[in-house]
Amino acid sequence: MFRFFVSKKRAKMQWIQAPSQSNVDNLKNVRREVSRHFRDKMKAYIELRLRDLKLTVRYKTIGTCIDASMTLRRGTSLDVI
Protein backbone atom coordinates (compact mmCIF):
# COMPACT_ATOMS: atom_id res chain seq x y z
CA MET A 1 0.00 0.00 0.00
CA PHE A 2 2.82 2.37 0.87
CA ARG A 3 4.41 1.83 -2.54
CA PHE A 4 1.36 3.37 -4.22
CA PHE A 5 1.82 6.62 -2.34
CA VAL A 6 5.53 6.67 -3.13
CA SER A 7 4.95 6.06 -6.83
CA LYS A 8 2.21 8.71 -6.94
CA LYS A 9 4.46 11.25 -5.21
CA ARG A 10 7.39 10.40 -7.48
CA ALA A 11 5.24 10.81 -10.61
CA LYS A 12 3.88 14.14 -9.37
CA MET A 13 7.35 15.48 -8.56
CA GLN A 14 8.57 14.35 -11.98
CA TRP A 15 5.66 16.20 -13.62
CA ILE A 16 6.29 19.37 -11.57
CA GLN A 17 10.00 19.40 -12.41
CA ALA A 18 9.51 18.69 -16.12
CA PRO A 19 5.92 19.29 -17.25
CA SER A 20 6.01 17.30 -20.47
CA GLN A 21 3.18 15.33 -22.01
CA SER A 22 4.83 12.01 -21.16
CA ASN A 23 5.08 13.02 -17.50
CA VAL A 24 1.43 14.10 -17.52
CA ASP A 25 0.43 10.75 -19.01
CA ASN A 26 2.58 8.92 -16.47
CA LEU A 27 0.94 10.82 -13.61
CA LYS A 28 -2.54 10.03 -14.96
CA ASN A 29 -1.66 6.34 -15.25
CA VAL A 30 -0.27 6.21 -11.72
CA ARG A 31 -3.34 7.98 -10.32
CA ARG A 32 -5.61 5.59 -12.19
CA GLU A 33 -3.67 2.59 -10.85
CA VAL A 34 -3.82 3.86 -7.26
CA SER A 35 -7.54 4.62 -7.52
CA ARG A 36 -8.26 1.21 -9.01
CA HIS A 37 -6.27 -0.52 -6.28
CA PHE A 38 -8.10 1.21 -3.43
CA ARG A 39 -11.47 0.87 -5.15
CA ASP A 40 -10.91 -2.88 -5.48
CA LYS A 41 -9.81 -3.13 -1.86
CA MET A 42 -12.90 -1.24 -0.70
CA LYS A 43 -15.15 -3.40 -2.86
CA ALA A 44 -13.65 -6.59 -1.41
CA TYR A 45 -14.03 -5.24 2.14
CA ILE A 46 -17.67 -4.27 1.58
CA GLU A 47 -18.47 -7.67 0.04
CA LEU A 48 -16.89 -9.40 3.03
CA ARG A 49 -18.85 -7.26 5.49
CA LEU A 50 -22.11 -7.87 3.61
CA ARG A 51 -21.50 -11.62 3.62
CA ASP A 52 -20.88 -11.51 7.38
CA LEU A 53 -24.02 -9.45 7.95
CA LYS A 54 -26.13 -11.81 5.84
CA LEU A 55 -24.88 -14.77 7.85
CA THR A 56 -25.50 -12.95 11.11
CA VAL A 57 -29.04 -12.06 10.10
CA ARG A 58 -29.67 -15.61 8.88
CA TYR A 59 -28.48 -17.11 12.16
CA LYS A 60 -30.46 -14.64 14.23
CA THR A 61 -33.58 -15.37 12.17
CA ILE A 62 -33.12 -19.12 12.57
CA GLY A 63 -32.48 -18.65 16.29
CA THR A 64 -35.60 -16.52 16.64
CA CYS A 65 -37.67 -19.13 14.81
CA ILE A 66 -36.31 -21.89 17.03
CA ASP A 67 -36.97 -19.85 20.18
CA ALA A 68 -40.50 -19.06 18.97
CA SER A 69 -41.25 -22.72 18.25
CA MET A 70 -39.92 -23.72 21.69
CA THR A 71 -42.16 -21.09 23.29
CA LEU A 72 -45.14 -22.36 21.30
CA ARG A 73 -44.46 -25.91 22.38
CA ARG A 74 -44.21 -24.87 26.01
CA GLY A 75 -47.32 -22.71 25.68
CA THR A 76 -49.39 -25.45 24.15
CA SER A 77 -48.19 -28.02 26.66
CA LEU A 78 -49.10 -25.71 29.54
CA ASP A 79 -52.53 -25.05 28.03
CA VAL A 80 -53.22 -28.78 27.83
CA ILE A 81 -52.37 -29.29 31.51
What keywords describe this structure?
mainly alpha; 2 helices; rod-shaped
Number of alpha- plus pi-helical segments: 2
Q: Count all strands and give the number.
A: 0
Level of helix content?
Answer: over 70%
Mean pLDDT: 81
**Cα-based radius of gyration, to the nearest Å:** 28 Å
What global shape is seen? rod-shaped
SSE class: mainly alpha
Q: Cα distance, first to last residue?
A: 68 Å
| Poorly predicted runs | none
Instruction: State the domain count.
Output: 1
Order of helix and strand elements from N to C terminus: HH
Main beta sheet strand tally, sense and closure: none
- Estimated share of beta-strand residues: under 5%
Describe the overall structure.
The protein has about 80 residues and is mainly α. It has one domain. Helix content is about 95%, strand content about 0%. The protein is built from two helices and no strands. It has helices at about 1-15, 20-80. Helix 1 (about 1-15) runs antiparallel to helix 2. It is rod-shaped. The mean pLDDT is about 80.
